[in-house]
Every structure is written in structure tokens, then in C-alpha cells.
Design goal:
By secondary structure, the chain is an alpha/beta fold. 35% of the residues lie in helices and 21% in strands. The chain has a five-stranded mixed β-sheet, with helices on both faces.
Length: 153
């Protein structure tokens, strides 16, 4: 499915993993993207307050969640977890959001930025940056209502 380039807006990109969440954001015109420190993911979701602080600090108006689909575009166990986490954030923040196929974003981050996998989460935030840059070029547009009209994976 081909999407159109979305309208520019400052958004947060999340690369959600079982242990960490990589973060990146862009300016209102979608000209620059920056990484933020990755967050440790907690069972009680206490990291959501840090995400909320970033949204408020940088005046972000929406967010995207990377979905790690397989090479055939099918849902993986990690993608299912990402979808559930995306719905949790949508209900929590009441901001427009969308999912983006992030197949191979980690490998692209390793190759593009020369980052090595470690426990710091740096690769996760650079992967969030790759996902964000992909969204800026290809969309899809963010949805105003949590999950309504989202592409069905």
C-alpha cells in the first residue's frame, strides 16, 4: 500500500522493544530529526511519564509507532506488542498517531550511522530516527482518533 507524504508537524517516533523504547522527534516543518535517550520499559509503564514530558517539552502534536513486520508484511509477536503499546499511548495522550512498518530499521541504523548494538539503547533511538524519516517521506498521515482508520496489519 502506498501512502502520501503527511503534512508537516512536530511528532515523536517510538521504536518499541520488550526492554527499551528508542525515541526521536522532528521539528514542526519536518526538516530536522533528533534522537532522545532511549527509555527502559517497565512492567507498570512508568516510562509513560517521561514520554509525556518529552511531548510537552518539545510541543509535539502526534506520534508514530514502528511495527516490526516480517519480510512479507505480516505481524510478528513484537509487532503485536507494539500495537498494544501504541493503543495504550493513544488512550493516555489523546494525540493523533499512526503505525509505520519498520522492517529492518535496526539494520539500517547500524549501516547508516555505524552504531553497534549495546545496552545503552542508542541503536533503538537511531532506529526511531530512521522510522521518523521514513514517515516524513512516505506517511501515512496521523489519525485523529485512536486506531480509527489505521491501516490494518
Amino acid at each position: 500500500m502506498k501512502f502520501c507524504k503527511p503534512k508537516p508537524r512536530p511528532i515523536l517516533s517510538l521504536d518499541v522493544g520488550f526492554k527499551r523504547i528508542g525515541l526521536a522527534y522532528c521539528d514542526p516543518l519536518c526538516i530536522t530529526s533528533n534522537i532522545l535517550p532511549a527509555l527502559k520499559r517497565f512492567d507498570n509503564n512508568q516510562e509513560i511519564e517521561v514520554i509525556r514530558n518529552h511531548i510537552n517539552e518539545f510541543k509535539l502534536t502526534g506520534f508514530i509507532i514502528g511495527l516490526p513486520l516480517d519480510e512479507k508484511g505480516k505481524m510478528t509477536p513484537q509487532a503485536i506488542d507494539c500495537k498494544i503499546y501504541g493503543q495504550l499511548l493513544a488512550n493516555e495522550f489523546k494525540l493523533p498517531f499512526s503505525y509505520v512498518n519498520e522492517h529492518s530499521s535496526t539494520w539500517e541504523s547500524i549501516n547508516r550511522f555505524g552504531i553497534k548494538k549495546d545496552k545503552s539503547g542508542l541503536i533503538d533511538s537511531f532506529s526511531a530516527k530512521v522510522i521518523l524519516e521514513q514517515w516524513i517521506e512516505e506517511g501515512p498521515e496521523l489519525e485523529e482518533l485512536a486506531g480509527k482508520g489505521q491501516k490494518k496489519y
